[in-house]
Amino acid sequence: LVVVALVAAVALAAARTASSAPVGAPAGAEELVAADAQARECAAGLLPEGTPGVVRRPFRPVASGVLTAHLAGPSRDDWDLATFDAASGRKLSASATATSDELVPAPVAAGRSVVVQACRLSGPDDRVPLTLDFAAAAPASRAAAGPVSIVRVPIGSGAELRRLQALGLDITENARSASVDVLLLSGADRSRLAAAGFDGATVVTDLAALDRRRAAADGAAAGRAQARALPSGRTTYRNYEDYGTDLKALVAANPGTVVGARLPGASLEGRPFEGVEIAAGAGKPGDGRPIFLLAGLTHAREWPGGETSMEYAIDVARRFKAGEPRITALLSKVRIFVFPILNPDGFVVSRQAGPDGGDDDAAGTSIVQSVNDQGAYKRKNCRAVDPATQALPCMLHSPQGVDLNRAYGAYWGGPGTSATPNSQAYRGTAPFSEPEAQAVRAFGTAHQVQVFITNHTYTDVGRWLRQPGFKVDGDDVGDTTQDDAAMAALGQRMASATGYVSELGYATLGNITGPSDDYLYYSQGTYGYTPELRGSNFHTSYADAVIGEFDGEGAQAGRGLREAYTLAAEEAADASQHVVLTGTAPPGRVLRLHRTTTLHTSDAADNEGTTRPRVDVAETADLTLVVPASGKYEWHVNPSTRPIAPLRSEAFAFTCEQAGGGDGAVLQTATPVVADRGQTVTTNFACSAGAPTATPTPTTTPTGSRRLVISRPSFSAKRTRRVGSLQVRLRLLGGGRLQSVTLRIEDARHRVLFAAKRSVLTGAANVRVRPKRKLSVLRAGSVRVVVSASDHGRRVSIAKVSRVTR
Q: In which band, very low, low, confident or very high, does the pLDDT at 143 lie, cut at 50, 70 and 90?
């Protein structure tokens, strides 16, 4: 293992000095010209000089460091870029986005020639600007620090976990009721742990060595058939360019079903957030169907989450093309967006530095390796503490970066976060300080996402986590959310498909504030889930961590994450879990929903025990839909009122506008829309100048075959006297949920003996009812069990006569 020490005398400005010589100095900027465009994988190998559609540029560094090649062409063209070792032809680094804007950093050794290869794949332009930047760096020995290890530390209470977090160590998500795994990166880490009075058993002695063994095993697996092949047929982890290649291939193979998609903005180093939209008739402007959003690699070292996201995109497109009835029905009702990499800069560093990455030498060492937030175990993004060094390649920043799953605005800055830049839980300087978080925020405010899954690793049992991610006494969130019954039911179905545990976010892993799923839930009402995928390390054996988890093993064989993601998409399509806006308007007009609200940061203590006053965070939802040619629209959105306890009736402003790319004149306004889950609101727009205010009309969502059942046959008078309460089992058949459930037990004269209330009923539940009046004896005989509930605004009730035994 080595640590990079930056040579201070070499500034980036000097590295950009242009030179006509191809060796010994950076080439600066020039324009590459390729007359031909041919579809190929530019990273597959070093191609001969003169190959049609390929331009090569040699470079020989006079010092060891990082060479960054950058193409800066327009989005209408597709050029890819790769860097190779000239002598061996070994790929060092590559990029294959859907445009001609490509960034490729590659560690290089003094005097060892490399070749930068650009490939023109498609588009009208036969030329593209290329810039070569060079930052010199010298490796320093890490021998004294010892290997990176994983230690299992016993914790007896939440207070001990918080004290452990305050040490600033790299604490993993693999927590249990009495222990948590911690990465120790140096002898200093070990001393700090011991000095604080913590002991622990070593689980992994040398993480880098384990990584090399894993890579060798995956490489061996690539040469033999897998018992259960993934949709892509892969047997090893993707590199950054593999994701771009696979996304483009998926779009090309599925016209009309898969279209390319991007989150707004770009990463700190300028990389895009690429993904796909998958739906029957995908890519319609202002499509009103509900949305399921699936994402991976918020944390760079958690490679399996990107893999399972990418595999699901391939899988669902393939199943739709094959005419599978379940997927055909699903994609007619829902839009699926998949973004496999939310932290592209960090992932490039992590994947490139891995033992099967592009920069390993024969001894298994590289210019950067597993040091705090660096190398293959980089977690955070590429934010530099000193802005003056931000332009340097990310792999030269250590141990810097922001934990992107602490950077979002809902209750930012509280438990589970740190204000220390070197901490793995560093939250940044302010809510949404990072462009990666800003990109997810921009997508969420412009698209009403019904269900969101953000994949992470690792826990040894696998966990499906849901809101809230923290428990703070006296805040406006509470221990559970108002949607917990419905969210828990879906979480349990996904847990059953994967063999995982379904639980509240803070239940086992402890508090965190500022994650993406909490943000989308508290700002937009999106059901959010964080699966901590099963494994013994952040990126263990591909066969286990990806193939086994995606396809399922043992009792879950043939289900796994593939089935769990499909269940989530089907939940997004369930109209009883969100709001449906319907009505008429002139074709081509633009309907707009707008809401401006306020979230706030946390005033609870962070990992260092520091508290800060709450700060308001302005939030906006701005949604548009283009009225189809039929003049009838159907628009699936989340509730107008956000799921925060003190709120009562927040509303959407609803307008009809002249088409104009966001600049269209408002032609008609509707009365503000207040709607809850399960409601349908009908608004008919004339959408002409001077038209009177339109009036939204709430209606009920049809219940279909939904049926409520009381399944408790009888009660024991003796047991009731001993326990002091009764238990009644309710079952809601046919999906959906009921609100404002009341349950009472009456005697023959209709006197209420026992009663209970429940805010939501989804699926099956045991409801404990307690005495309504003082009773010395519940007599043998008959009682009447009565249940009343709200079914999308319509009151329903059932009754059942039950026996009371002695």
A: very low
Instruction: Tally helices (H) and strands (E) across the chain.
Output: 15, 38
Per-residue tokens: 519:
């943000």
Label residue 596 exposed, middle or buried (CB < 10 Å: 0-12, 13-18, 19+): exposed
Distances (CA, A) of 695 to 642, 691, 731: 22, 12, 37
The answer to whether the beta carbons of residues 34 and 55 sit under 8 Å apart is yes
DSSP string, 656-692: EE--STT-PPEEEEEEEE---TTEEEE-----STTPP
> What CA–CA distance (Å, rounded) separates 543 from 702?
45
With b meaning 16 or more CB within 10 Å and e meaning fewer, what string describes 25-53? bbbeeeebebeebeebbbbeebbeeebeb
Closest CA to 287 of 327, 247, 334: 334
The per-residue pLDDT for 265 is 96
Task: For residues 427 and 144, give the distance between their C-alpha atoms in angstroms, rounded to a whole number.
Answer: 30
Band (pLDDT 50/70/90 cuts) for residue 796 is confident
Distance between the two ends of the chain, CA-based, in angstroms?
A: 74
Look at residue 804 and tell me whether its pLDDT is greater than 90.
no
pLDDT band at 637 (very low <50, low <70, confident <90, very high): very high
Place of tokens 């790299």: 170
Angle at Cα 740 formed by Cα 572 and Cα 753, nearest 5°?
Answer: 145
Neighbour count for residue 582 (Cβ, 10 Å): 17
Q: What percent of the chain has pLDDT over 90?
A: 60
Tokens of 446: 């412009």
Please report, as a single letter, which amino acid is at residue 655.
T
Q: Give the residue among 415, 397, 394, 395 at the shortest CA–CA distance from 406.
A: 415
Q: Can you tell me the distance from the alpha carbon of 568 to that of 572, in angstroms, rounded to the nearest whole number? A: 6
Reading the block at residue 695, the tokens are 């009036």
Spatial contact of 579 and 274, defined as CB atoms under 8 Å apart: no
Average pLDDT of every residue of the chain: 86
Q: Beta-strand (E) ranges in 208-327?
A: 258-262, 274-278, 291-295
Closest of 407, 561, 760 to residue 416, by C-alpha: 407
pLDDT of residue 355: 55
Q: Among candidates 662, 597, 572, 586, which has minimal Cα distance to 630?
A: 586
Identity at 193, one-letter amino acid code: L
Q: What is the pLDDT of residues 590-609, one digit of tens each?
A: 999 999 999 999 999 999 99
pLDDT band for 258, please (50, 70, 90 cuts): very high
For 200, how many CA atoms within 13 A lie in the half-sphere containing its CB? 30
CA-atom Rg of the chain in angstroms: 29
